[in-house]
Specification:
202 residues; alpha/beta; Rossmann fold; 8 helices; 5 strands; binds adenosine-5'-diphosphate; binds magnesium ion
Amino acid sequence: MRRTFFLTFEGIDGCGKSTQAERLKRALTERLLPVTHTFEPGGTALGRKLRTILVHDDLNLSLFSEVLLFAADRRQDIDEVINPALERGDIVIGERFADSSVAYQGVAGNVGQERVERLMDIVTSGLVPDLTLLLDVDPRISLARKTDLDRIEQRGPFLDAVRYAFLDMAARQPERWVVIDAARPEDDVFRDVLGAVLRRLE
Ligand SMILES: Nc1ncnc2c1ncn2[C@@H]1O[C@H](COP(=O)(O)OP(=O)(O)O)[C@@H](O)[C@H]1O
Ligand SMILES: [Mg+2]
């Protein structure tokens, strides 16, 4: 079997996932490694439609329906982007995955950690990232970086709960998670990101 490598960035809104994922993609491509970069919600045509619903529309979504819409997007991303890329032998860089549903809706949103974990196991057919980089930052810092806050991101104190949910998940699975202090300048964060990834790839 071909060796596959699936890594994800997690962390609250504005922590730097998109910034670091782009830089990592460039750095790995420069090393002539094949890379596929995806993100959610929004990496597929279905995902882009769901993203407008999840991020912009005021449909009074319950937290559990939110879980299911994110789940539909995630499954589409797995079928359309992630699995084909892993089969080609690409390194797949994802921005957010099942862990975001567990932290946001499961723990912080009170849908229930175990319930969301079980659902995600079904939705992903057990696909778990080989490495998850948690870009950890105080929401007061990350929110100040963003000027256009969307529907989900506006829930300020909620993000404290999300942050601690991520830290707790990372502490319980240290073989998969690497916690990176993302309050520092971009270059410093990236040095740790690249270091963690290259260590795992070797
Ligand atoms: N380490 C950093 N220090 C300061 N600003 C940052 C840092 N990393 C990213 N930013 C800026 O913060 C904003 C949010 O970053 P982004 O990568 O979009 O976060 P995310 O994808 O996690 O929401 C962007 O304007 C980005 O340029
Ligand atoms: Mg982003």
